[in-house]
Amino acid sequence: MQHRPHHHGILMLKLTLVALFWGGTFVAGRTVSQHLPAMTAAFLRYLVAAVFLVAAAFKMEGGLQRLTRSQLLTTAAMGATGIALYNICFFAALAHIPAGRTALIVSLNPIMTALLASVVFSERLGSRRWTGIALALFGAGIVITRGDLLGTLHDVSQSLGPGELLMVMAVLGWATYTLILRKAGQTMSPVAAITWATLWGLLFMGAGAAHELPTIAWAEQPWVVWACLVYLGAIGTVVAFLWFYQGVQILGPSRTAVFTNLVPVFGIALSALILRETILVSMGVGGAITALGVYLTNKPTNKPSTGAGKVR
């Protein structure tokens, strides 16, 4: 028992690093997107991730779980939404808009998930969660329009360009993936579900990237592109997932999910530090309002805990 504070501190550090790693994916993704097409970039990221995830599945669970027909369809849907759709839109968006701005739009993931859950599962959100959703959307509007909400009403194209629309599609894809993961989690371990989803996503993205791969001048790609792809696949995907999963097992989903609020903070800070991106006042104000909205939407109720929770 005397070692518990020490182990607790290590877990807190790991979860903080998970947020840092996820924040770093926007910087790495922005770098890769300047050199490679979105489909190819997404495929290569998950080619790296698949190698490590399969290895982790064998080490942690003795191999890949054999799937039923229903599980195959479920994991295929996960691969199509949270892996393929999200990552293709992620890289395509980063080719158009700054990494820090992208990170703030992605912070809407919990809000989109809550809205979809209310529609698909008829979940009652309650006044507090609706207030949180409204605040988060208002904050995102400030970020997306660079603080000019009224001006955007007259000319939507000045704020909603291809990059912003692609990131909204990415958020929709991730929210759908999260809801499907709930179903997969009823009969599969998270490691098995996500590994199979990754393999499906890799198949879909590989089919899409097949026509791009022969046209790329691979020898001319700078080393930083390869370093970023390894980081995205190994650190930003596999290590971050395994540590986050460890947090869910020990602390529970709700307490672990709190750390994801640090992702846009790290994303903006790293974008400014590494990419020299400008931090606009509208990003700070809108980001703070969005964070408050996300907190209210995901704040646990006062009912006694039953051990149930949500996995991001």
UniProtKB/TrEMBL annotation:
The keyword Membrane applies. Belongs to the EamA transporter family. Residues 14-144, 162-298 form the EamA domain. InterPro entries: AA-Vitamin_Transporters, EamA_dom, EmrE-like. It comes from the Bacteria. Pfam families: EamA (PF00892). Its main location: membrane. The chain crosses the membrane at residues 12-32, 38-60, 72-97, 103-121, 133-153, 165-181, 193-211, 223-245, 257-274, 280-297. This is Membrane protein. It is found in: Membrane. It is a multi-pass membrane protein. Keywords: Membrane, Transmembrane, Transmembrane helix.
